Every structure is written in structure tokens, then in C-alpha cells.
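Priority: low. Protein: C-type cytochrome. Input follows.
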Amino acid sequence: MRNYFKMSVLLLSFSGILISCGGEKKEDKKKEKITLNQNKSEKKSDKKKDKVPASERVALDNKGVGPITNLELADNIDQDMANKGKGVYDKMCTACHKATKRFIGPAPAGILERRSPEWVMNMILAPEKMVREDPLAKDLLIEFNGSPMANQGLTEEEARQVLEYFRTL
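Result:
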């Protein structure tokens, strides 16, 4: 009799587990997963439509992070400085940047319409720090497939010459 009682309790416990675990139909689970996945893909496509690429985003109030905190540009372009900057740019930057079109990195043409002079100088002088600490630089890194800008070891004077060249593009 004891064995019969133990078997009955065991059987009832086992069937209770089966009932509690199998309460939902497989079809219901599939529909739920499909719905969740559709919502995720809809959110992603909405973000892509609303978000302006970092390379096109205007952020003139962002000075970036690095050694340059304030830089005033003269109204007129210093052509001698710009010529020196073109020489530096041609020697150090053209492996990744094309003046007027997207390449491994963004095109510098029109950069001062989207970025502050301080931001550009800090990106040239301290690209590692910018990518670590500046949100826009992080977004650019993502937009350009994780290709970080190499620190070319330019002096502030050389970076300023390059910036002056960018004003001529």
C-alpha cells in the first residue's frame, strides 16, 4: 500500500510539472518571437532615417578634447600658411583622406562649416584622445568602419597650417 501511495504522489507531481511547463503552445511562442523581432527591426530602421551621419553633422560649438582650447581665425586666408599646409597634408594625410571626397576617412572640404577650428586641430593633434572622449569623434570612428585616425605627430604649427589649407578647399 505504501508503494502505491508513493507512486501516486510521484505520478501526480510529475504530471503537475508537465502541465505547468507545457501551458503555452509552440505556435504562440513563435508568434511572440516574430513580433519581438519585427519591433526591433522597425526601431533600427527608424533610427537610421532620423540620424544624420557624423560626417555630415554640424557641431560648431564642440571644441573637442586636446591641447587646443581657443583658436581665432582671421577673416582672410593666409595663403603662405595654406600652401605649407597643403604640403603637410599631401605628405601626411592623403593615404586616408581625399580633399573633396569620402575615402578611408572623411573629406576635409567644407569641414569648417561643420566643425570648430579647435575641434579640427584637436583631431589632428590628439586623435586617440578625441576617439576616447569626444562623442562626435566616436561616431565618426563607427561611421568609417572603425578606422581610427593615425596620430601623425604633427606640431601645433603644422596642424595650424593644415587647417589653413582646409579653409581653401
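The CA atoms of residues 15 and 125 lie 71 Å apart. The longest helix spans residues 26-50.
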